[in-house]
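## Example record

The block below lists the input lines for one assembly entry, exactly as stored, with component labels intact.
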Amino acid sequence: MDRLNRALFTVLAVLLVAAGVAGTLASLGRLPRVDPATHLLPHALRDRWHDWGPAAWLVLAGAGLVVAVLGFLLVRGQLVPRLGRPMPDLVLTDPERADTPPGRTRVRSTALVHGFERDLARHPKVRRVSVGLGGDAADPLVHARLELFSGADVTHLQSYVAESLSRFVTTTGLDPADVRVVLALTDRDHHRVR
Amino acid sequence: MRVVNRLAGVLLGLVLLAGGLLVVVEGVLAATGRRPWPVDFATWYGPLTRTELRAPVVLACSIAVGVLGLLLFVTQVRRWAPPRLAVRHGTGARPVSWWVYRRSVERELSSAVDALPGVSETRCRLRGRGDRWRLTVSPRGRSDTGEPVHRAVTAQLERMAAPVPVRVRVALRRPRRVA
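Predicted structure tokens for the full assembly:
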């Protein structure tokens, strides 16, 4: 979304510059074939609008609807998390065996997230953990944000996270191909004197 | 800047949504011959039919729009500092991409350098892209503190699993005079 925003605002900026330059030149009478004495809403345009009748208003209303939908999509795009939709609950089916009745076990994805978060938070240098689980059971995505205490050894932490991830994979049966860990090396536990 | 862009995106989206709905309501009411609602045409229609292109207000608005567009263009096109940078990958069996927040690295390094004797008010500026880091450390201290600062920064970068090599520049600033 960040790239799209950047492209959108760059295009908008170019349009604003073009409109500003055109307006300035037209106002100063430097634009060829444009009379600076023309009104902003010329009478010819107003007459033509009246000639079109109610259909013109309906077309305008349709254009307004398109703009409103685009605005809604833009707002929704800003609010969607980076990971996309959260992973649906994990449903484990019993292998077909003659000696047991068939059954299904549903594991809530929030339970998986909380379990993984608690395991990661056991490391003494981890202050806060936030894990996001996206994708689906066939192709899960794991994004973790670890806020650390000051002075944490990142290499040591990486080994711990790798062990924790192995436990997660063994417990859940999920095999995430995309695992992203972002670290915040905080220093808030240091009192800084200036 | 990304957060500002997101907020601006929400704002722009809300403006488009509200403006679009307003046009829908006004258009349908006008097409069916009813009174305009909620905005009366006369409030904006009249001035537009009376104002000429050469009016000072048109010139001022055009210049303002152009300047606004130019400022917006500059903020979007210039290079932004990355919010996060890559660190060395761990030795685990599974591929994990590791990142670290740039500002947190700058704060940690500033604290570590400030802990050295004779050094204070350290400012760190970390830039780069992906796993290429460029670091500028600017503490206040005497000229002979440059080497210890460099050593301390190198040790901290190793602890943070920073990708090697990191281009480190130590720019000492003159210490403040004690009155």
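Chain A has two domains: 2-79, 90-185. Chain A touches chain B through 86 residues (CB under 8 Å).
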